[in-house]
Design a protein that fits this description.
heterodimer, A: mainly alpha, B: Substrate Binding Domain Of DNAk, Chain A, domain 1, six-stranded mixed β-sheet, 13 helices, 27 strands, globular, Molecular chaperone HscC (chain B), HSP70_peptide-bd_sf (chain B), nucleotide-binding (chain B), Heat_shock_70_CS (chain B), ATP-binding (chain B)
């Protein structure tokens, strides 16, 4: 391309005013029609657009678009024309609006954001100020910035109305906003989140019930119950993975996402959780078989289990420990332990075995072998699975130790020793208290307010919740 | 001979270029407007036009209308025991128009320029082309309807220099174009529109109001009743433009219901529809980088633009009354004909050149780096932006995302959303990549070429090997393949259209049949008597007598009919 481009292409001797450019273009166009000579026309058109930007009588914006397209040859780009003046960053400028109060755009934006969605929709349509393109452009940028800065502060309905009115889902508008250094991708995520939120809130046949339930469950007991279902957690994790993480976080909340990612990322992990839960419950069952009930028949056993305080006790501890184990227990959970299938089956088999043995231990008077084997099995599990870093294992381990001792008691060889230990009245009491203190310590150390989020929010901070737990447990001991 | 065709939702027109300018061709009934309705007659032949329009009421299951709205989709309409695609129905309308042209000029047309809404998608344009192929005529150029209107307008203003806006509210579509006229050049700056907004929607609105007032449920109405209702309300809509208050009899289920509606009520209820027109107008203005005061003239065309509320809305937006000196029904047909003349290098149009734009953005799907360092997939990267003057050719360089990528898939989308999930997929191109170390070392240059006829060609070149893969976006879901077209062409050619000479008589008979169904009691008997008399006149085979009888019969029926003739 020569130096005289675009003027030579148009057949002009040099730069001219807009009228002259148009005339020259019209003349050339007659012999270089678009349907006849596509390449020639493309060159002519490019020359025309560039010439317009450099017309000698430029007063204000030129008529034709000034952006330069890639040249047809792909090399030798012509120099870019001076860009049209871009709106400057948010400096307050002397501003005249066709409004009564003559607000500046910032104030107008704030006023709009304060409106209810229905009123906002009406105002955006009817307000004559917004019929001017320059006003709309400035407001669009300001409002986009507001929404990005505080996504939680603006309701999803408002976001949807603003997006429709200011065309934030239009690729040309996004490019304009990007030129003003507005992070358009974050805006898109917020729009997506608002859309998703509205869809979920409004319900309807297309919304998967899972989405609505996710919002209602949070990370509470119902969520855990669902997670324990066959493939429950995996389904939820798969559903959430459809959305970009920022969008999912905006709609469902950080905690919920984390919970489901932890629980649902690998079925094997959940199997481990279940195994642990089984073991803990087993320990508790054995504790029920405390020295106070040496010979327990099925009826007695059930009666013992039926004691409400003990049930509540068992429930609280098991739920708390499950929750703890899910969130903090397995280390490191951010890189889930890949479990081969053989290992999973082994774990499942052990869980079943332990459950069976627990039932047997409750019924048969032959507790010797049962108790011993349980103790050994427990220790083997603990060492094999290598979860020594989890304090929760302390609970189950202690329970096994207790059961083991109980079993040893039957053996005449060890009876005196064991009876000496067990005769200590507070043995069982001390055992459980120690376990509880370990739980407490872990909670306090790891800010376990998430543990008891199922309690009313006011009580969800760690220390009051711990105190409540302690009180309940102590209360239960009196019965 | 190249002719121009306006294939509208409610009416179609055809025209030829003469030395005095474009002239529209009249059909067998002597009218230039042919209703875009196709019906199956009792003897199995097909009816197109006024006769079919009348049969919408009497034989709703054997008649189809407003099928332009389904162009580009797979939706099939059932006529009797036959299924038709919208392209086939349009093809039948085109065939009827071609017959009219042949009757008028004595020569057969070889090629046509057909008008389409500016905002028609790729699939819809292809469907229109297919319809022409199925009708047995070649179409190389489609013209956007507002551009056609602008051409019709600009033909009178050869030496003027102005920027103007064309607002086209047709039966089923709404288009807006911003144009500039100088030195014989008609240049389109920007186009926008709404493919599902038209006069029919206003009739739907009146139907809703009527049914709500009469406390009837739309789903309980029989097909014939619905057609009658719509026909009557169409007239009401037209009359409301002139009269402040209308009272009309609506025959439903054999009983006649009287309904009143006022102009104010109609305007208030139609406010949302009118509001929908604002967004495309503003977008076209914005894309053209013009403000309202830089527009010299506003031109409204399209049958539905006769409604004062439309004129008023446009007037409020631009601070002046729009020009309406062009016949709104005929402007587009005249423009399409002028385009045909341009294409055939007619002497009268030597000084005129048109440049048009592509109405939608074309681009590819990419993965972009977000502002927080994340990779965002499903991002739409435009290559040819909307309202770029065509033919246009643009290129951009892309690189693969990952180091060990063996294949690069280019997915081509059309639409305006920054996320491809909301855009329309046109096609995909796969490139095999040789092994490389860094993604930056394997750039791929992608070039989009969009020609005047709306055909997109995609070229992807691997810079290192200079291997180019080309693809022309041909196939679209919802469209017919070439073999399908061949098959349907033969099937369609075998279908008989009712002979042209009998069309006038047939239109009258079907009209009488419709009135027979609508009326009750004495009026009904009167219609039947006259119909029988007319039929017996037809049997006489004497052309003069028939013409005489037809004339009288038409006059007599016109007195009875509450519906204004088309």
């Amino acid at each position: 391309m020569s130096v005289d481009f675009p003027w030579n292409e148009l057949g002009m001797d040099g730069p001219g005013d807009r009228r002259a450019i148009k005339r020259a273009y019209a003349v050339r166009l007659k012999s270089c029609r678009p349907e006849d000579d596509a390449e020639g026309f493309a060159r002519l058109r490019q020359a025309y657009e560039i010439a317009q930007a450099w017309a000698t009588d430029q007063d204000g914006q030129p008529i034709a678009p000034v952006f330069v397209a890639a040249s047809p040859e792909g090399d030798d780009r012509p120099p870019a024309p001076p860009a049209s003046p871009a709106p400057s960053e948010m400096e307050p400028e002397p501003w005249t609006l066709a409004r009564r109060d003559n607000d500046d755009p910032q104030a107008l934006a704030q006023a709009l954001l304060a409106l209810e969605p229905a009123a906002l929709a009406r105002e955006l349509v009817e307000s004559p100020a917004l019929w001017k393109l320059e006003v709309k452009d400035r407001l669009s940028a300001i409002l986009a910035r507001c929404v990005i800065a505080a996504p939680g502060a603006v309701s999803s309905e408002t976001v949807a109305i603003l997006a429709a009115s200011f065309h934030w889902d239009d690729v040309a508008e996004c490019r304009r906003l990007a030129q003003l250094h507005i992070p358009v991708d974050v805006l898109q995520q917020i729009l997506q989140a608002a859309q998703l939120r509205r869809v979920v809130d409004e319900g309807g046949p297309d919304v998967p019930p899972l989405a609505q339930n996710l919002l209602r469950w949070g990370a509470g007991p119902k969520a855990w119950a669902y997670a324990l279902r066959w493939k429950g957690a995996a389904n939820v994790a798969a559903y959430l993975s459809q959305f970009p993480p920022p969008v999912a976080r905006l709609v469902f909340g950080d905690n919920v996402i984390r919970f489901w990612n932890l629980v649902g990322c690998d079925g094997g992990v959940l199997a481990l959780h279940m195994l642990r839960l089984n073991l803990i419950l087993l320990g508790l069952v054995l504790w029920v078989r405390s020295p106070g009930y040496p010979e327990v028949s099925m009826g007695d056993f059930l009666r013992a289990l039926g004691a409400p305080a003990k049930i509540m006790n068992a429930l609280i501890l098991s739920i708390a420990s499950f929750k703890l184990s899910v969130i903090y227990g397995f280390q490191p959970i951010s890189q889930p332990v890949p479990l081969g299938w053989s290992r999973r089956w082994r774990l499942a088999a052990i869980a079943v075995l332990i459950a069976v043995m627990a039932v047997m231990a409750a019924f048969t008077p032959l507790i010797v072998l049962t108790g011993l084997s349980l103790a050994i099995a427990g220790l083997v599990c603990v060492t094999m699975l290598k979860f020594t870093s989890s304090l929760i294992w302390g609970v189950s381990t202690l329970a096994f130790i207790g059961a083991g001792l109980r079993g040893l008691q039957e053996l005449s060889l060890f009876r005196p020793v064991v009876e000496r230990i067990l005769s200590f009245d507070g043995f069982w009491f001390g055992l459980m208290l120690a376990a509880l203190l370990m739980v407490v310590a872990e909670m306090v150390v790891r800010e376990a307010d998430a543990v008891l989020r199922w309690l009313p929010p006011r009580m969800s901070s760690g220390i009051p919740a711990t105190a409540v737990l302690l009180v309940i447990w102590l209360f239960a001991q009196w019965f | 001979m190249i002719i121009g065709i306006d294939l509208g939702t409610t009416h179609s027109l055809a025209g030829i270029m003469t030395d005095q300018g474009p002239r529209l061709v009249a059909n067998a009934l002597g009218e230039v407007l042919t209703p875009s309705v196709v019906g199956l007659a009792d003897d199995g032949a097909l009816l197109v036009g006024a006769a079919a329009h009348e049969r919408l009421h009497t034989h709703p299951r054997l008649t189809a209308a407003a099928f332009k709205r389904y162009m580009g989709s797979d939706r099939e309409l059932i006529l009797g025991n036959r299924r038709f695609r919208p392209e086939e129905l349009s093809a039948l309308v085109i065939r009827s128009l071609l017959d009219d042209v042949q009757a008028h000029t004595g020569a057969k047309a070889t090629e046509a320029v057909i008008s389409v809404p500016a905002y028609f998608s790729d699939a819809q344009r292809k469907a229109t082309r297919n319809a022409a192929t199925l009708a047995g005529i070649r179409v190389e150029r489609l013209i956007n309807e507002p551009t056609a209107a602008a051409l019709a307008y600009g033909l009178d203003q050869r030496d003027a220099e102005s920027r103007f806006l064309v607002v086209d509210l047709g039966g089923g579509t709404f288009d807006v174009s911003v144009l500039e006229l100088f030195d014989g050049v008609v240049e389109v700056h920007a186009s926008a529109g709404d493919n599902f907004l038209g006069g029919e929607d206003f009739v739907d609105l009146l139907a809703e109001l009527a049914l709500a007032d009469l406390k009837l449920d739309a789903s309980t109405l029989a097909g014939g009743d619905v057609a009658v209702l719509r026909n009557r309300l169409e007239t009401v809509k037209k009359r409301l433009s002139r009269e402040p208050d209308i009272e009309v009899d609506l025959p439903i289920d054999g009983a006649s219901h009287c309904w009143r509606v006022s102009q104010e009520r109609f305007i208030a209820a139609a406010a949302p529809l009118v509001e929908r027109m604002r967004a495309p107008i503003q977008r076209a203005m914005r894309d053209a980088r013009l403000s309202a005061d830089q527009i010299d003239e506003v031109v409204v065309v399209g049958g539905a633009s006769r409604m004062p509320m439309v004129v008023r809305m446009v007037g409020t937006l631009f601070g002046r009354l729009p020009l309406r000196h062009l016949n709104p029904d005929e402007a587009i047909g005249l423009g399409a004909t002028a385009m045909a003349g341009l294409k055939s290098r007619h002497a009268a149009l030597e000084e005129t050149v048109i440049t048009d734009v592509c109405p939608y953005t074309l681009g590819v799907e990419t993965v972009m780096a977000g502002s927080d360092g994340n990779w965002l997939s499903g991002t739409f990267q435009p290559l040819i932006e909307r309202n770029t003057t065509i033919p246009a050719s643009r290129e951009q360089t892309f690189v693969p995302l990952q180091r060990d990528q063996k294949e690069l898939e280019l997915r081509i989308f059309q639409g305006e959303s920054p996320r491809v999930a909301n855009n329309i997929l046109l096609g995909a191109l796969k490139l095999q990549l040789p092994p490389f170390d860094e993604p930056q070392q394997m750039p791929v240059v992608v070039r989009f070429t969009y020609d005047v006829n709306g055909l997109l060609e995609v070229e992807a070149t691997l810079v290192v090997s200079q291997n180019t893969t080309r693809m022309v976006i041909e196939q679209n879901p919802g469209l017919l393949s070439a073999e399908e077209i061949e098959r349907r062409l033969t099937a369609l050619a075998a279908l008989k259209l009712h002979p042209r000479e009998q069309q006038a008589n047939l239109a009258l008979i079907t009209r009488a049949e419709r009135l027979y169904e609508e009326f009750l009691g004495e009026d009904r008997q009167a219609v039947m008597t006259c119909l029988v008399a007319f039929r017996s006149e037809l049997e006489s085979q004497d052309n003069d007598r028939i013409r005489h009888a037809r004339h009288h019969f038409a006059q007599w029926l016109a007195q009875f009919d509450q519906v204004a003739p088309l």
